[in-house]
Design a protein that fits this description.
It is a single chain. The protein has one domain: archaeoglobus fulgidus dsm 4304 fold (2-Layer Sandwich). The protein contains six helices and nine strands, in the order ααβββαβαβββββαα. Strand 2 and strand 3 form a beta hairpin.
């Protein structure tokens, strides 16, 4: 699978100002609207695909785990990729690469981007859609890891984050019913006009209990997907769990691969 924008591959050796300038260039190159060939109605419903005769898209979930050295410091990233087609896993791959910089809020792709690209090089199927455990447009410079990787590969992509990096919900997000989506709009912390729709807080699952609740996911377009479609996809692909299935399985596979490496199997 080719790297369409090699000039935008994350470079951990850059100074912070240069990293941020690259992110602004990525945001300018990103398309935050639908531009894909598949029918989004088939994403979470193989029966709908079968009845319509449409071929469901190949959806690829991406997540990370980290390996430590003898001193207990994280020194390598394990990037796990799970490809699904019609609700079934068709391929799982991972790559282990050195970590070059520590975690810096807003610059995650410069820490984890190259490991992810290394794992994608191992993938034999062509993805129609990426789902990343991380932000897309909900980002200080509208260029989270889902946007960065989506633009570099020029593949439709969605960011699915567990916490809100920036932006403001238009309503209270606490203890909302399953299926609720609350717009997340740009505020003074975002390089966009105030009120720009960045994505949604999406309630994919909720307890049937007044005494506990599940927090929403913060879902945003990465590249070539609009905010409404991104939220629809997160809901359609979340089966029995909070996370959309491709991301959940990538998370599980990252842990499994790390465990096997730790055990030497």
């Amino acid at each position: 699978m080719p790297t369409v924008r090699p000039d935008l591959v994350p470079d951990a050796s850059l100074e912070r100002d240069d990293m941020e300038a690259m992110q602004r260039e990525i945001a300018d190159a990103a398309a935050f609207e639908d531009d894909f060939d598949f029918d989004p109605a088939t994403l979470g419903d193989p029966l709908a695909a079968a009845s319509s005769g449409a071929d469901p898209p190949t959806v690829v979930g991406v997540d990370q785990s980290f390996l430590t050295n003898e001193a207990g410091d994280q020194d390598r990233a394990l990037s796990a990729v799970v490809a699904m087609h019609g609700g079934e896993v068709i391929e799982r791959v991972y790559a282990v690469t050195p970590l070059e910089i520590p975690y810096i809020p807003g610059l995650l792709s410069f820490r984890e981007g190259r490991p992810i690209l290394a794992a994608l090089e191992e993938l034999s199927v062509d993805p129609d859609l990426f789902l990343f455990d991380g932000s897309g447009r909900i980002h200080f410079r509208q260029a989270g890891i889902a946007t960065h990787m989506g633009v570099v590969r020029d593949v439709p992509s969605i960011g699915v984050a567990k916490s809100l990096l920036c932006g403001s919900p238009t309503d209270d997000t606490e203890n909302r019913s399953e299926g609720t989506r609350i717009p997340i709009e740009a505020n003074s912390r975002v390089d966009a006009p105030d009120g720009t729709l960045l994505g949604y807080a999406v309630q994919t699952r909720q307890y049937d209990s007044p005494n506990r609740y599940i927090n929403p996911l913060y879902v945003s377009p990465g590249h070539r997907v609009g905010p409404e479609t991104a939220a629809d996809a997160a809901l359609a692909l979340a089966s029995s769990y909070k996370l959309p299935e491709p991301v959940r399985l990538a998370d599980n596979y990252a842990d499994e691969a790390k465990r096997n490496l730790d055990e030497g199997t």
